[in-house]
Design the sequence.
């Protein structure tokens, strides 16, 4: 459903090509393989179902098993190739039972080196395809999943990475599967020590150590899905995304206070899903039928910050580039004074920008001021009201764009700002909050309601990860069903015999027969004549001109019959 790559109003979105390497050993276990396969399938289905630019444009899966190194070759990921990916993951489930180490004669370093070489080779072979589809050569991001201990796997992977060319590799993430969930924290605490030890052992090859990140996770679906969901986020540092303009600092030189921030999507926009209508409620006045379900319109007050929205690929129009957005601080308000009913839209997180185009001094200064702002808002329990497109209203035709407002609150971690659109007066509808109650409340009604509520589970906090919605499974099932139905239609059409097209047949004229007998072809006395199939009389609407492609197409499907007819009056040829 998404495009291979995208530009949002002139800003490029260039996700890397991703290759997953499965280190198949007897320590992996069938349960962990099943969880890995299902999680990768679900997240891939979710990515393919999102509209806009593709967040996972290229994907491949490799295995360290000697019998099946290439599980799913690195290729452009499309909805039509999703069943093939599912079949490849099913083969991994069956092969792990029979993987009695065909690589026992190789060391762990040699195994990692072999599969890394294969990954780089596939990336090199797809260079032409990359340029044709997206117009650029994406870097390669490698994910290595192993059941080994982090220290052992990191040491061997580090040595293997030193012996290959990492010029086009963006990152190598080593994911170690812990046996129990309780072992994850202990394993992660030892990773920094293992990385530093590995660097000391090989100080001359720091480039390999710089691209390897190590993490330990538990073998459950939640952590695997969160691991793959990282692919859906844009972590590029090409440009800062938002400038927050605060009032001038009167205590110093009077310079404007401008904070530069990057955007982090807190959740996927439901409006980009094919089942978008499932996530919203409509009244009779807002529901517009199937068109509303497939492509719901977003509010004009929304910031439209999705960095994967499909837009024009014309990079020459620099005037259309909105980044960075300029939000002006209008006021502060108590966080308790904001009603949830006037806050809407997809929440976004703001953090200090990491744009590499800025000076280090500016990045450091901007980061310190950003954290001070977050700390002050948190201590005072305040929120910041921001305005976008603060333009004076034109006296001729009014403002061309509405002025949108946003509220920025300090997160509980005091390390980021939570940004959400907030309603403006034009959007509010009149409501009557006073509901008249006829008579006093009866004690038996209170007891009945209290008894009903006590039967429910009481949660201290709402954790979305513990509230399954089965979205990804539904999307994966839909993709598989749509592919199977399309395949069935194709086979049905291919099985039908086409009836031959009946075309009128006309005997060769006498002049043609005479030409064949004499060995001469008097082309001036013969020409192409077009006539309808239902007519027996020849006619020539185009004279001696050759039939165009449109007429040849009509001839093929019986709309126009083409026959040879002698020229009745060759002298009139030049008159046509």
Sequence:
């Amino acid at each position: 459903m998404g495009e291979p790559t995208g530009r949002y109003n002139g800003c490029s979105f260039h996700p890397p090509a991703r290759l997953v390497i499965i280190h198949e050993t007897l320590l992996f276990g069938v349960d962990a393989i099943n969880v890995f396969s299902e999680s990768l399938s679900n997240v891939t289905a979710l990515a393919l179902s999102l509209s806009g630019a593709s967040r996972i444009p290229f994907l491949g899966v490799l295995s360290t098993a000697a019998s099946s190194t290439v599980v799913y070759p690195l290729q452009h990921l499309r909805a039509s190739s999703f069943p093939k990916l599912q079949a490849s993951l099913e083969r991994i489930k069956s092969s792990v039972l029979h993987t009695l180490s065909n690589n026992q004669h190789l060391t762990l370093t040699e195994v990692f080196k072999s599969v890394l070489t294969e990954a780089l080779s596939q990336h090199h072979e797809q260079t032409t395809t990359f340029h044709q589809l997206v117009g650029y050569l994406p870097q390669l991001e490698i994910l290595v999943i192993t059941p080994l201990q982090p220290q052992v796997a990191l040491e061997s992977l580090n040595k293997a990475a030193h012996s290959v060319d990492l010029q086009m590799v963006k990152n190598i993430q080593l994911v170690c599967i812990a046996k129990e969930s309780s072992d994850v924290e202990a394993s992660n605490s030892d990773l920094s020590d293992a990385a530093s030890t590995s660097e000391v052992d090989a100080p001359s090859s720091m480039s390999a150590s710089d691209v390897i990140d190590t993490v330990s996770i538990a073998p459950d679906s939640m952590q695997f899905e969160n691991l793959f969901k990282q692919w859906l986020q844009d972590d590029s540092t090409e440009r800062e995304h938002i400038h927050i303009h605060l009032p001038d600092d009167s205590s110093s030189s009077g310079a404007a206070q401008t904070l530069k921030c990057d955007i982090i999507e807190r959740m996927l926009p439901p409006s980009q899903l094919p089942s978008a209508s499932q996530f919203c409620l409509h009244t009779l006045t807002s529901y517009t039928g199937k068109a509303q379900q497939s492509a719901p319109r977003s509010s004009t007050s929304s910031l439209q910050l999705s960095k994967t929205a499909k837009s024009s690929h014309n990079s020459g129009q620099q005037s259309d580039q909105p980044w960075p957005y300029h939000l002006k601080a209008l006021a502060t308000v108590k966080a308790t004074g904001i009603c949830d009913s006037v806050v809407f839209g997809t929440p976004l997180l703001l953090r200090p920008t990491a744009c590499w185009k800025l000076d280090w001094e500016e990045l450091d200064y901007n980061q310190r001021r950003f954290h001070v702002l977050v700390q002050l808002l948190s201590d005072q329990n305040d929120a910041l009201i921001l305005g976008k497109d603060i333009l004076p209203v034109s006296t001729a035709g009014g403002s061309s764009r509405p002025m949108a407002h946003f509220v920025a609150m300090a997160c509980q971690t005091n390390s980021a700002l939570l940004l959400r659109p907030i309603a403006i007066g034009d959007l509010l509808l009149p409501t009557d909050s006073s509901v008249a109650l006829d008579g006093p409340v009866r004690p038996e009604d209170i007891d009945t309601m209290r008894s009903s509520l006590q039967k429910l589970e009481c949660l201290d906090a709402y954790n979305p990860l513990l509230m399954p919605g089965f979205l990804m499974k539904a999307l994966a099932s839909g993709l598989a069903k749509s592919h199977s139905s399309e395949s069935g239609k194709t086979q049905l059409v291919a099985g039908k015999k086409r009836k031959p097209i009946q075309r009128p047949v006309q005997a060769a004229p006498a002049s043609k027969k005479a030409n064949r007998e004499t060995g001469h072809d008097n082309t001036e006395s013969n020409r192409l004549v077009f006539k309808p199939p239902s007519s027996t009389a020849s006619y020539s609407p185009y004279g001696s001109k050759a039939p165009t492609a449109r007429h040849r197409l009509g001839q093929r499907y019986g709309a126009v019959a083409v026959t040879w007819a002698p020229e009745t009056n060759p002298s009139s040829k030049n008159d046509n």
Observations:
- The radius of gyration is 33 Å.
- The longest helix spans residues 471-495.
- The chain has a mean pLDDT of 74.
